[in-house]
Amino acid sequence: MPPLKEVSTSHSPEEYLRRALRAESPASRARLAREGLESGGRDVAPDTEVLLLRQVYLAHLDQHRFQQAADVALEAASKGPLADVLRHDASRALAALGDLDAAVEQQRLAARVAPAERRSFHYWSLATLLHHAGDHEAAIAALRRGERWAHDDRPLLKAHRAWVRLEAGQAVSHLPAIVASLEGSRAGKGYGQLVLGMVRYHMGDHRRAAVHLRAFLRRNAAADAAKALTLREELRRARTVLAELESV
Q1: Torsion angle of alpha carbons 53, 54, 59, 61, nearest 10°?
Q2: What mean pLDDT is predicted for residues 198-221?
Q3: Most distant CA atoms of the chain, gap in Å
Q4: Is the pLDDT of residue 5 over 50?
Q5: From CA 221, how far away is CA 235, in angstroms rounded?
Q6: Which of 69, 132, 133, 178 has its CA 20 to 30 A from that of 42?
Q7: What b-and-e string marks burial along 167-182, b requiring 16 or more CB atoms within 10 Å of the CB?
């Protein structure tokens, strides 16, 4: 039986959103999201409008249309709902575009308008941008602010702050305890493997550093386009350090 054709006149904005979320290509995702925005005219619920715009943003990001992605994310942020998430989205696109100053500005705004439960994430994201830019002191300050709001992710932020300080040539008190705390937490998986690998590397524990870095790279070997783009600098750093360790 041939597949049914999309009918653009009989679906609600919410149905278009559902279809966009299941789309098999960025082009289909963007088309369905735009049709959803058009289908409701001025009566699209604000939450639905923002989520449809976010699908357009993701389609641009997947196609490496970073300026268009940033523009759509900022348009969506102006609508009200999920403004912190959308400022973060804009920051990701601007960072990919190479406009780090603008990316940092948007991430600062994301942290400022975020609800309490997402504030630690946004300060950590801000610190990551500043770390990549080589501004160690600003990154440390952002991580300290994030730690005040953190709960389950506190071990990750503390260990990341240790990584930044070690990279800056600063001494870190209670370093074994910081590492053990992250290794024993849920945050020790995923991005935590990168942080653990880098901290172990600076501690001179090259064997365990390599184990963590390989785990991080394996976990992200099949990352989708948007995630691979977001982690581009982290993946580069992990590969560089691991290559150094494996050459010894």
Answers
A1: 120
A2: 96
A3: 67
A4: no
A5: 10
A6: 69
A7: beeeebeebeebbebb
